[in-house]
Design goal:
It is built from 15 helices and 16 strands. By secondary structure, the protein is of the alpha+beta class. It binds one RNA strand through helix 3, strand 6, strand 10, strand 11 and helix 11.
Length: about 450
RNA sequence: GUGGCCAUAGCUCAAUGGUAGAGCAGUGGCCUGUGGAGCCACUGAUACGGGUCCGAUCCCCGUUGGCCACCCCA
């Protein structure tokens, strides 16, 4: 039965669908991006290994309540930035806006308190916040994250900061560490009141937005970028002057540890963070433009695990935004290992040679050589062009002539020198050349 | 969430109230025998929806997306 009758009217072409677009704030990580991403992941893993962190990955989806309890109801993250929904079974779920809550949940749920303490774990993966996107700010963004759970001593904070510093050193990015202490439930409320009293005397100079915040989350006034507030903040009472004795000792010890290893940091009395669970130590990692170019931050969260239902467990951690680091690596032109290039490209001329080439591809692949081909291209020129574009080290050429006398041509793509060898010996010859090449490229 | 700027081919950029053009990239050919600056040809676009108009890629409105600032943060 004919599919089309001759007199069928041509089907009216359907209205062209809208060009598919990314969901707002999402982004693709393309093959050309991966050298930077892999570079970062590799450095994260290296540093994690040096400092004794093991990898953990928790789900992207958690109960909404986990985040509201952990992060705080009056934070922007919880109030307006979470991707939350009710699933088919009526569960209230959210895409994770940060790592720590999920890690703390896993710590409790898997009884990690019975492991030798502290438990040090690292992670990297995507997170979601429903904010207005702009440069360095996405709705799906990646973070790497380091957590030390089950340790109250300031030495843990210090070493965590040093690990973060070691990482940025390996990433070859100059950064500043801004450090502060925000106290604990004993001393923070008192400081908070002192702060409120101070700002009340300045009400006439404050914007409506700032006044609103004064009642909701006065600490956050401290790191405002509003010009009027920056001026007001210059004389604001500092948290470090109102710490209780324990918090003060903790902070002093932290700084002493850092001084001990001659680590340079910046004391930042106005540094507060947008998440409620922080206690005592808070810090941020800044690029060259200061707070505006923060790569990440972290701090201590001694009450979080108890808060969400575990046994009281002190902990400290930090996280950084990977997209921001990728952007900075590109901007600074930090050299990263290039995309993988195949060792060998097989070019074939003619049907018979192509069959042989297919076999050769499999043989070499088994041998552990990375091989590329372009079986569907016919001309030798276009095949070599392809070999060149994908950066193969050597091309193998097999055509009629070689087929007849059981040989193959090995062409060095770097200098164009080529040699005809017995096809039986091709694996051996290739292995030899690759080894030679590898030896030459290793810096002395 | 608020405000501003913007959207033409895969990329970078032209042009026009009256048939949208280039470079690069891609594909094919010259070429069953040699890539990293050869020659030739081809493919490919006005984000989406509506309005004004004889006619809209251009003017207007809306939507979507991007960038920037605010906000916030990673």
């Amino acid at each position: 039965m004919p599919i089309n009758k001759p007199d069928d009217k041509p089907v009216k072409p359907a209205k062209k669908a809208a060009t598919p677009q990314l969901v707002r704030g999402m982004h693709d990580i393309l093959p050309t991006d991966w050298p930077w991403w892999n570079f970062i992941f590799n450095k994260v893993e290296e540093v994690a290994m040096c400092y004794g962190y093991e990898r953990i990955e928790t789900p992207i989806l958690e109960k909404t309540q986990l985040f509201t309890r952990a992060i705080g109801n009056t934070t922007d993250i919880v109030e307006k930035e979470m991707f939350s929904f009710v699933d088919q079974s009526g569960d209230h779920l959210s895409l994770r806006p940060e790592y720590t809550a999920g890690i703390a949940r896993a710590y409790i749920e898997h009884g990690m308190l019975s492991l030798p303490q502290p438990v040090k774990m690292f992670s990297y993966g995507p997170h979601f916040r429903h904010e207005r996107p702009q440069a360095g700010r996405y709705r799906q963004f990646w973070q790497f994250n380091f957590e030390v759970l089950g340790e109250t001593e300031a030495v843990a904070d210090s070493q965590l900061i040093l690990a973060a510093a070691a990482l940025f050193e390996r990433l070859q990015l100059p950064v500043t560490f801004a450090i502060n202490s925000v106290g604990c439930p004993d001393c923070r409320p008192k400081y908070r009141q002192v702060l409120i009293d101070y700002y009340r005397t300045k009400r006439s100079e404050m914007s409506d937005e700032a006044k609103k915040r004064l009642t909701r989350n006065p600490l956050r006034l401290l790191d405002s970028k509003e010009e009027a507030l920056i001026e007001i903040n210059k004389n604001a009472p500092q948290c470090v002057d109102h710490l209780c004795e324990n918090c003060r000792n903790h902070f002093v010890k932290l700084l002493e540890h850092l001084d001990e290893v001659e680590f340079t940091y910046q004391l930042s009395p106005n540094l507060v963070r947008g998440i409620d669970y922080y206690t005592r130590t808070v810090f941020e990692v800044w690029g060259e433009d200061g707070a505006a170019s923060a790569f990440g931050g972290g701090g201590r969260y001694d009450n979080l695990i108890e808060e969400i239902g575990g046994r009281a467990t002190a902990a400290v951690g930090f996280a950084c935004g990977i997209e921001r680091i990728v952007a900075e690596l590109k901007k600074k032109q930090v050299p990263v290992p290039p995309r993988q290039r195949p060792d060998i490209f097989i070019a074939s001329l003619g049907e018979a040679a192509r069959k042989k080439a297919l076999k050769l591809f499999e043989d070499l692949r088994r041998q552990g050589v990375t091989v590329a081909e372009s079986f569907t291209k016919s001309g030798l020129k276009s095949q070599l062009e392809t070999a060149n574009k994908i950066g193969a080290s050597f091309a193998l050429v097999i055509g009629q002539k070689e087929l007849m006398d059981d040989t193959i041509i090995i062409r060095d793509m770097e200098n164009g020198i080529q040699e005809t060898v017995d096809i039986q010996k091709v694996s051996l010859e290739i292995a030899k050349r690759l080894e030679h090449k590898a030896a030459r490229s290793v810096p002395a």
